[in-house]
Amino acid sequence: xxxxxxxxxxxxxxxxxxxxxxxxxxxxxxxxxxxxxxxxxxxxxxxxxxxxxxxxxxxxxxxxxxxxxxxxxxxxxxxxxxxx
Length: 84
Hints:
mainly beta; four-stranded mixed beta sheet; three-stranded antiparallel beta sheet; 1 helix; 7 strands; globular
């Protein structure tokens, strides 16, 4: 099972993307991804609205849990007000 977040603002390019969460446990406060438009690493919080899907989300950007060392190593821009 996958979860899809539609039309979230991308901190890298400022455009809207659809994001897909991998089936991981527990949910973390930040998820990272590579922006398909800029190729830069960025991070977003797991805010919704979410839609549960039975299979992969076509065209959605895959999100991965962010670790604080990944954020600094990738030079991505965490969402303001988070601990990432």
